[in-house]
Specification:
This protein is of the alpha+beta class and 1298 residues long. Helix content is 24%, strand content 21%. A hairpin with a 4-residue loop joins β37 and β38.
Length: 1298
């Protein structure tokens, strides 16, 4: 649309965010006339204390400048498109590379990926792999049951009678405080030699098994010694299994007594603190020991429950939650006179990691008050279990009640809800030390097929909160062979360092009978498990024939991924499974929901969909076509899927039978050829078994060359497909150098480099010296530019990655470049494929200058700018090289030189730093309208100004903002020199006002998602390192380095909270962070009554209290060493936001409507690129920048709010740990997500009932009293809220006598 001319007087004053502003004394006409008037700026004396005075400047002649017409800007856009296309045609070599492939057609074959056959083959291979593990599991389980049945119980067995390898022996021997060292009980422990085994990533001994016993179990108890005695016979079975299948990894028997015996033997990876590992709490054991559970936990919070008892209950509930897996459902409620949920969950929810975390945090808020009302608690629990309108396990149903005791048996409630079928088991827990009659609690458990436990102290919690699994295992044991079914677990972290694994589990039953004709035993002996590393499963999938964007994935019945290229947990906790949902591994949409449901149901299927994919560097979103094909993996809980883009239906397979040609092409890999042929990076793939890997590509290439001198590409120890394709692509890219690149002068078009990357693993960069600045991944399949070029048509620009928190780009020596790449598409016999990507690397500074010329009325850089006279009418353009700059000297405390640039269309002068003073921050400001006679004299109004006067009008050019932004919203080029070091940043960080307008006008669309695998650094509670703890409270009146004051903070705003930083005043209202020094109170503070009511006094009181409790006072704390588990990163949820092009494709003019601060802009997509060309007026003020778009990961640490101090005389600036853009601490709100549960299926069989079950054994309290010293110590630690220290072991549960 046509834009009316804007005259010199049509300025729009307003307060500037980073500029000085001298406003006019009267109103001015213009586009903002009649609208809300901008708030006048502060007096000059407040804005610039060091500045003494500044004169008024008169304006030169008034010329008429207008915003460019739409057809003008479209003309500029066409020039840009033609320039980019011309350079890529000449130097990219797309057409020439097509010809090279056709000329070498006899050296390769075109193979087809047939999705259905491919996915069925891979599923069959995985099934065969897992089936071998299943057979080994069955042999182990059968042998264990027979060994235990034949074993004779020994009451008088002694510790020295049992010889075994204690996996924790070495660690305990190194610990002088170990109980076993003090007792000298190592006589029965073997000392073994170990050898390094790459398969286990550990040192192992194949002749023995190892035994791990939990820290809180006494190794010398009769139960444990008998367990060690009969399980010793498993050693030979383990060894025989490995002989039959050498690929077996860890074989483990987890006993219900807590003993773990595993093969091969290896020392236990004991943590630096107390070892809390207990096999009965491992995900694989829980899944194998019982059927899925629907559990309601009710906690008595009546007034009698207080102090230690309430703490014990909270800890017990958290430990109980840890016995649940993703196949289980749970809810937690507290009760006194009435019952209510402790969290926001109003019904049973899946017991996944995030839901359990919500429960654990909510439980800590329980408060004891009121009277005990068992009826309210049980009615609430039964109502929860009878709710059939929600997703749940629909198998074992149970109520777990924690109380300190009571007299009511609530028989009427059981008669109403649970009798006579008794489908819900009731487990009761008497918590704390008291004199209440526990008979009612025992009766409740016995009358409802449950069990009664006592938890008198913290030492009894872990054992008694997991013993209920024995009761749930009864129907499974009584079902016999029907229940002997192998189950495969979720992905989790192996405790012995194997990495991510899945485990096949099989329960082991007690087959003994108490006597002839007696009922058989109902106890489960334990669970047998065999690990399968995910890497072993990945090796069965095709690696490089699917192309860079094709992949295989697998999910389980919960929808969690077993295999997926995006399964990359940055931190893992061996106590928790790795649960990444398929819809979180990819960007969720309706089509993927349907695919996921079909896979969970065990169906086959194929579907082509249009979907969004995230780039490898997580900065971009592309809309692409993908073909999904899936089949179930028989005899498992898994389903396998294959994803292929349409262009990956076919792939090249080299056929280099000519050995002379092999040698010829191989020579182009030698570094001696790089100077003439360009530098070659080779993908670090597993070309041969004996090839030594290295993260340094130069070293890896050296290792590769040395190996190739010993073997041939057809050697059996090598992957012939990978080697032949690598060598073929070496020769093909060399021909591109010979035909195109070598004869071209890159400097003519300001190019730093040209390059080509191929599916075969070659990246060739020309010239050789350009490789020094090449930072892309040498594996093309892991390079963002490569994968995006395949998915997008045309030229893909990739500016250098820049984080807003890092320093600006270094523009010295022309080392900063912008990648431009495009895919090479071949059509051979009607089959289309994209085997390579080519591109150029633009010199940033040179192309920024070229950009100015292309977006102006000039045809080349040396052509003079068209001058616009006083009475002329001119259109603004993007070339700003002819600005008039007038040097001024301002009277600071030290002389500082500025340049005043007249801007007639604005009616103002723009002040910038003198080039000779580059260390100064840029100072921008405007002055009132000036006259046509030039600048005023230096003595006007007595101000210290020394201008260079002129009596003639100034020829000038309007300063117009022109930028190129890519499809992710990142700055690629700008006509503003001061923005060159911001290339690669999200444009909202450069011009938030304009980026928001582009988004609001649908040039960009936003996509928000959550990364559930992120790692976050721990948030320290205050100062870091070894400095003394200080009080971080600063007020504007406090002493401050620099000019002596904090500056003028806005007093009408709430106190500003920042993280380890405060904002200091600087010239031009630029707020710069400076390290904050602790401000200790002075004597005057102590004598000031107002100070004692301030936040500083409260902070000091807190630290004194901390010192009294922890005996630390104000000592310096040593900085944590690197690698210390206490300071390592932990898993967290990060919110990600990406932007991509919206629906607007045409040229578009708009106005950013903001009263007197309104701005005109024009935006247009450049054809055949991923660029948006934007022309806009430069911003005059910042009052419209109410919102700022973000493009980065954010997470939120939610600290407990400190007590609010009484109002202080002045606002305080307190240090805190905050993020500027809050988001839920655990990603999307869990309370909302559980209302929309994702589809899942539990195991297809359930063992929760057997008519022959004997329920007479229903509890007799705790039967293993820990030592008095242990009990007192642990209770004191619990009261103080301190982390528990290692303590001597307590005896194992006596009910484990078999």
């Amino acid at each position: 649309m046509a834009v009316p001319a804007r005259t010199c007087g049509a300025s729009r004053p307003g307060p500037a965010r980073t500029a000085f502003l001298w406003h006019d004394r009267g109103p001015r006409p213009g586009p903002g006339a009649g609208r809300r008037v901008a708030r006048p700026p502060r007096p000059l004396s407040l804005l610039l204390p060091p500045l003494l005075l500044l004169p008024l400047l008169a304006a030169p002649g008034a010329s008429a400048y207008s915003f460019p017409q739409q057809h003008t800007m479209q003309h500029w856009a066409r020039r840009l498109e033609q320039e980019i296309d011309g350079v890529m045609r000449i130097f990219g070599g797309v057409q020439q590379l097509r010809e090279i492939y056709k000329d070498n057609r006899n050296l390769f074959e075109v193979q087809e990926n047939e999705p259905q056959k491919l996915v069925e083959k891979v599923a069959g291979d995985i099934e065969s792999l897992l089936d071998r593990k299943v057979q080994a599991l069955k042999r182990l389980a059968d042998a264990a049951e027979n060994f235990q049945k034949a074993h004779r119980w020994q009451d008088n067995i002694k510790e020295e009678d049992i010889i075994y390898y204690d996996a924790k022996a070495d660690a305990e021997l190194d610990d002088p405080e170990s109980e076993d060292v003090e007792k000298g009980s190592k006589a029965s422990t073997l000392r073994l030699d170990f050898i390094e085994d790459s398969n286990f990533k550990n040192k192992v001994n194949y002749s023995y098994t190892a035994v791990q016993i939990p820290t809180d179990i006494y190794k010398g108890s009769t139960v444990i010694l008998n367990e060690l005695n009969w399980t010793e016979a498993l050693e030979n079975v383990f060894i025989e299994n490995r002989r039959q299948d050498p690929t077996l990894l860890w074989q483990v028997f987890g006993s219900a007594t807590g003993v773990t015996r595993y093969y091969p033997a290896t020392p236990w990876r004991a943590p630096k603190k107390i070892d809390l590992y207990d096999v009965r709490r491992r995900p694989w054991y829980i899944q194998g020991a019982s059927s899925p559970k629907d559990m309601v936990i009710i906690v008595d919070v009546s007034g009698s429950v207080s102090g230690l008892t309430l703490k014990l209950m909270k800890t017990s509930v958290c430990e109980m939650l840890d016995t649940l897996s993703d196949d289980d459902y749970v809810n937690v409620a507290s009760f006194n006179e009435k019952a209510q949920p402790v969290s926001c969950f109003t019904h049973l929810v899946q017991a996944n990691v995030r839901n359990k975390k919500v429960f654990k945090e909510a439980v800590q808020g329980m408060v004891a008050k009121g009277t005990t009302g068992y009826k309210a608690g049980f009615e609430y629990a039964f109502d929860q279990l009878q709710n059939s309108n929600i997703t749940r396990a629909n198998c074992n149903k149970m109520i777990m009640m924690f109380t300190d005791g009571g007299e009511d048996r609530v028989q009427d409630v059981f008669e109403k809800y649970n009798w006579p079928n008794r489908t819900v088991r009731v487990f009761t827990f008497s918590v704390g030390q008291h004199n209440y009659d526990v008979t009612p609690l025992q009766w409740m458990a016995c009358a409802n097929k449950g069990y009664y436990f006592e938890i008198p102290s913290i030492g009894a919690i872990r054992i008694n909160t997991q013993e209920y699994l024995d009761v749930l295992g009864r129907p499974m044991v009584l079902a016999g062979k029907e229940a002997k079914q192998v189950q495969w677990t979720n992905v989790y972290e192996d405790a012995l360092g194997l990495g991510l694994v899945v485990t096949g589990t099989l329960p082991v039953f007690n087959l003994t009978q108490d006597g002839p004709g007696e009922k058989k035993n109902q106890l489960i002996l334990g669970v047998m498990g065999i690990d399968v590393a995910l890497n072993d499963i990945k090796r069965l999938t095709p690696n490089y024939t699917l192309g860079a964007n094709g992949y295989v994935f697998a999910i389980d019945l919960n929808g969690y991924v077993l295999l997926h290229p995006n399964l990359k947990p940055q931190t893992t906790n061996f106590r928790e499974p790795v649960t990444l949902d398929f819809l979180d591994a990819e960007l969720e949409d309706e089509n993927k929901e349907e695919i996921r449901r079909s896979m969970i149901d065990g169906n086959k299927g194929h579907k082509q969909i249009r979907t969004l994919v995230k780039s490898l560097d997580e900065r971009y979103i592309d809309e692409v076509m993908r073909n999904y094909t899936w089949v179930p993996i028989r005899s498992t809980n898994y389903s396998l899927g294959l994803v292929l883009p349409p262009y990956s239906t076919f792939y090249l397979q080299a056929n280099l039978s000519d050995q002379i040609l092999q040698v010829k092409y191989f020579e182009f890999l030698l570094p001696s050829s790089f100077e003439s042929e360009g530098h070659v990076f080779i993908a670090p793939r597993e070309y041969c078994k004996d090839l030594n890997a290295s993260d340094n590509n130069t070293e890896f290439l050296k290792n590769f060359i040395e190996l190739m001198e010993k073997v041939t590409p057809d050697s059996k120890q090598c992957n012939n497909f990978l080697l032949h394709n690598l060598i073929l692509d070496t020769g093909i890219t060399q021909q591109l150098v010979e035909r195109v690149w070598r004869d071209q002068d890159l400097n003519t078009y300001s190019l730093l480099a040209v390059f080509a990357a191929t599916d075969g693993g070659i990246t060739r960069v020309f010239p050789n010296k350009a490789a020094e600045d090449w930072t892309e991944n040498p594996e093309p399949f892991n390079a963002s530019f490569y994968r995006r070029s395949l998915d997008n048509h045309g030229y893909v620009f990739k500016p250098p990655h820049q984080d807003a928190l890092l320093r600006p780009l270094e523009l010295e020596n022309d080392t900063v470049g912008i990648l431009v790449s495009t895919a090479v598409e071949l059509s051979l016999g009607g089959r289309t494929l994209r085997p390579a990507v080519v591109g150029v690397k633009l010199d940033l500074e040179a192309w920024a200058e070229k950009f100015k010329v292309l977006a102006s009325n000039r045809t080349h850089q040396d052509q003079p700018q068209k001058q616009c006279g006083p009475s002329s009418h001119c259109e603004m353009d993007c070339d700003v090289n002819n600005e008039v700059r007038v040097p001024l000297t301002l009277a600071y405390s030290t002389p500082r030189h500025l340049l005043a640039t007249p801007s007639p269309s604005l009616g103002q002068w723009v002040l910038t730093s003198h080039p000779d003073f580059t260390a100064l921050p840029e100072l921008r400001g405007t002055v009132p309208p000036y006259s046509t006679t030039g600048l005023p004299g230096s003595g006007e109004e007595g101000l210290g100004l020394s201008p260079s006067p002129s009596s003639s009008p100034f020829p000038i050019s309007q300063d117009l903002l022109c930028v190129l932004i890519d499809d992710g919203g990142f700055l690629v080029l700008s006509n503003q020199n001061h923005q060159w070091d911001q290339v690669g940043r999200f444009f909202s960080e450069v011009d938030a006002n304009l980026m928001l307008a582009l988004y609001n006008n649908s040039f960009y669309t936003r996509k928000e998602s959550y990364d559930y695998q992120a790692a976050c650094a721990p948030q320290p509670p205050g100062n870091l390192g070894a400095a003394p703890r200080g009080i971080f409270v600063v007020s504007p009146g406090n002493a401050w380095p620099g000019d002596g004051r904090l500056g003028d903070l806005p007093t009408d705003d709430p106190p500003h909270l920042i993280e380890k930083l405060v904002v200091t005043w600087a010239q031009g209202q630029q707020w710069e962070p400076m390290p904050l020094s602790p401000l200790q109170p002075t004597i005057a503070d102590f004598l000031n009554l107002a100070w004692w009511t301030s936040a500083a006094a409260w902070s000091l009181f807190q630290q004194l209290l901390y010192g009294l409790i922890y005996h630390s006072w104000f000592q310096a704390e040593p900085a944590e060493a690197e690698g210390n588990p206490e300071v390592r990163e932990s898993s967290c949820v990060m919110k990600q936001t990406q932007y991509y092009f919206g629906s607007v494709n045409a040229s578009y003019n708009a106005i950013i409507d903001c009263g007197n601060c309104s701005r005109l802009f024009h935006a247009q997509r450049l054809t055949n690129t991923n660029l948006l060309f934007v022309v806009a007026e430069k911003p005059l003020c910042s009052q419209c920048e109410a919102g700022r778009l973000l493009q980065k990961e954010t997470h939120c640490i939610l600290p407990a709010p400190p007590p609010a101090p009484p109002p202080a005389p002045r606002p305080l600036l307190a240090a805190a740990s905050l993020t500027p853009h809050p988001c839920p601490a655990d990603g999307p709100e869990q309370c909302e997500l559980v209302q929309r549960p994702r589809y899942r299926r539990g195991p297809h069989i359930c063992f929760d009932y057997n008519a022959t079950e004997d329920t007479s054994d229903c509890g007799r309290g705790a039967s293993f009293p820990p030592s008095l010293g242990v009990l007192v110590s642990l209770q004191l630690l619990l009261l103080l809220g301190l982390p528990p220290r290692p303590q001597p072991q307590v005896h194992a549960h006596a009910s484990r006598r078999l």
